């Protein structure tokens, strides 16, 4: 277990590292592995397309509501 000073120093370092990062959203898409068969890869690509479309539509709705609010 870390002592209090080391814990606070680590928390401060993590907070500073997070502040330096630009704002970004990480989307967890379904993973496609090289060992997947051809049909599985096609199916996973379709799922990825649906996931990206869903995020795009949701982002547009949020943007539109924000612009509507002024």
Q: Rg, please?
A: 20 Å
Number of domains: 1
Low-confidence stretches: none
Number of strands: 0
Largest sheet: none
Structural class: mainly alpha
- Separation, N- and C-terminal Cα atoms: 50 Å
Order of helices and strands: HH
Number of helices: 2
Mean pLDDT: 87
**Shape type:** flat
Query: Which range does the strand content fall in?
Result: under 5%
Give the quaternary arrangement of the chains: single chain
Helicity range: over 70%
Transmembrane segments: 49-69
Keywords: Membrane, Transmembrane, Transmembrane helix
Question: Could you explain how this protein is built, in words?
Answer:
The protein has one domain (4-69). The chain has 70 residues and is mainly α. The longest helix is centred in the C-terminal third of the chain and has 32 residues, at 38-69. It is flat. Helix content is 70%, strand content 0%. The protein contains 2 helices and no strands. Keywords: Membrane, Transmembrane, Transmembrane helix. The chain crosses the membrane at residues 49-69.
